[in-house]
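Section: Multi-chain targets

For targets with more than one molecule, the full set of components is provided together so that the structure can be written out for the assembly as a whole rather than chain by chain. Components appear in the order listed by the source. The example entry contains two components.
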Amino acid sequence: MVDVPSTIAEAAEWLRSGRITAVALTEALLARAHATQDTIAAFITIMDDAALAAARAADADFAAGVDRGPLQGIPLGVKDIIATKDAPTTANSRVMDPAWGEGRDAHVITKLREAGAVITGKLGLHEYATGWPDPDTGFRIPKNPWDLTRSPGGSSSGTGAAVAGGLILGGLGTDTGGSIRGPASYCGISGMKQTFGRVSKAGCVPLGYSLDHIGPMARSARDCALMLQVLAGYDPADATSADVPVPDMLGKMDGSLEGVRVGVPREFFFTLPDLDPEVKAAVEAAIAQMAEAGATVVEVELPNADVAWMAGRITSSSEAYTYHLPDLRAQPEQYGKYARRSIMFGSLFSSADYVQAQRFRSVFKAACAAVLGPRADVLVVPTMTDLAPTIADFDVGASRIQPGFMPPWNVTGLPAISIPCGFSGGGLPIGMQVVGQAFDEPTVFKVADAYQHLTDWHLRVPEIAKEAQPV
Amino acid sequence: MSESTIDAAAIVDQRLARDGITVDEEERARLIQLVSVTQEWVRRISIPETRYAEPALTHRVK
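Its structure, encoded as tokens over all components, is:
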């Protein structure tokens, strides 16, 4: 039995000390991936040959003294809405043109390969990153490794499930209204949506052009920072890419919360009637623990935070509807019913509604800027309002119109990471968000990493991850 | 059928016709039910401060 490291940071040490090779690590995780396809069902495509070739190249580089950084030889997975030249991109949809992205890598994939990462496969998702998994589309539906009857969240469901299940050490998700952070919360891992424009979206099928992000998901905030360091940077191929310097993402990590001003906007984020009491209690306890560790907790007000998610959904629905309009006309029957319903929602908004949502975004951004910086270094709020629902009981229609704590940070473009902060009495993970100023991901990572020095929630693994260990 | 229901149906039918999309009766009924939700959302984000606000998607580096 191969002993497998639990984090990217740990694996990077093992690879350099010779405790494990990239090939042995990749073989072990590929075996886990295959062994759990009938249970966790995280992958749409497992790329054995390409992954082992990349692992052999990483080992050869190590042997030759070539070190491309901490991702060299690290097995990672990719949400199957991001183009990879050595595997098809399906978006979990029969509508998707097989020619889209064929033979080319998305910008982020090029960067990962240049850093020596090993891509082991393409991961399941909600169709076109929206709706709800639909058995009619013919693809596997990823399950939550903590309870296989429950959802891993979405839309980056496969990435969340694969990291939690120990099938990869990290992966790429996409986030338009919480699709990285939601699965991170439900699956008990970390997931970062960095500042809008920080990471190129070129080579990713869009959902909401002005809200989409590609970002890292992994066990720890440190691992997410290691990944974001590679992913970040200007790309002229993405019209929304920001031409700004990339800081040292780990540069502020010192394990300390001393003097950090943690802003807590109680209204809406802690007063929503639908907020699960166990989620609220866990986040409150985490804030108290941060205060005990030296953080200064500041009560802040964020005017109109209770309706910011509405502006996000108006925007994402309108943008998605526009993108999908040709296929909605030409082949509507090819969509799964949940994706079609979700996308059709956008037909109800007018151009005036859309522009009004954009004007609201400007006002809400200004409200956040009046708090973040002047009054607080970060904000801490719950990630989800609830615990992972059972797949059978999930109310698809209601989910689209329920309030959310994640869309406000897509509306503003501010960086937000979800990290585990506890478990329910029934053993389900709970997550909280740490939100920062625009382009100040290092402070977000500092706070998240310091909290993870105080706790071990992020290192806990479900039973199925232990059982998946191959012989 | 109430007046608001008639208005919602007209809105849905007009939008779908404009965009050249056909849906089945179940989906049409579902969209009609959601019209009031979307109108309420737009009303709630139409706060006075937005009257002269301009959309901006960019951020400044500190």
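The first helix of chain A runs from residue 8 to 17.
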